[in-house]
Amino acid sequence: MSSKGSQIPLYTKLLQFRHLKQRNAICPSNSSDASSKSGKRSRKQKSSGSGSLSGEKALKAVPNSSNYKFPEGQIKPSTLRATPNKLPFAPTGGVQTVTIPNSTKSRKAFKVKTSDNLLYRVNPVFGFVEPGQNVSIDVLRHNGVEKTDHLIVLTSDTTPEAQCAKAIFETDPARELTVVPLVAH
């Protein structure tokens, strides 16, 4: 009874709801900030009459490479491994899941990035992996051209008392890096 076009926005809304639920659990002190920011944005959108914010510029091109260099010794290969070691996608998009097991004896904080933020969405972006546990990360790919991108998982050792993974990565800790190719063919 429902068409394919109506299923995609519903699924996206479910992912957003799940993300907010996990974000509030990870950073309880920031939960009120997140809800107040989203409320302000929706009021601006309603007042402008269109779906986009007035004065907002559209990104016309995404750079394919970065000239940023990490300081010596700041980034090293991660002791955590992602499974599977690459994610295949159809060019029309889809959802895949990456699992990050923590086989070390220390608690790890993680941050997930992609090489193309317009094409991919990840959930959760920040979080913790307890020793001996694993975490699943959903990767959503929108419709786009056939190309290979990268999912980057930054990890850092953390204390058992830490409650907000986002705050840990704002302090610029020593990081470990895992890269998972995102292959669309």
TrEMBL record:
It comes from the Eukaryota. Residues 72-185 form the MSP domain. Keywords: Cytoplasm, Cytoskeleton. Residues 23-94 are annotated as: Disordered. The keyword Cytoplasm applies. Gene3D superfamilies: Immunoglobulins. Pfam families: Motile_Sperm. PANTHER family: MAJOR SPERM PROTEIN. Central component in molecular interactions underlying sperm crawling. Forms an extensive filament system that extends from sperm villipoda, along the leading edge of the pseudopod. This is Major sperm protein. The gene is Cnig_chr_III.g8393.
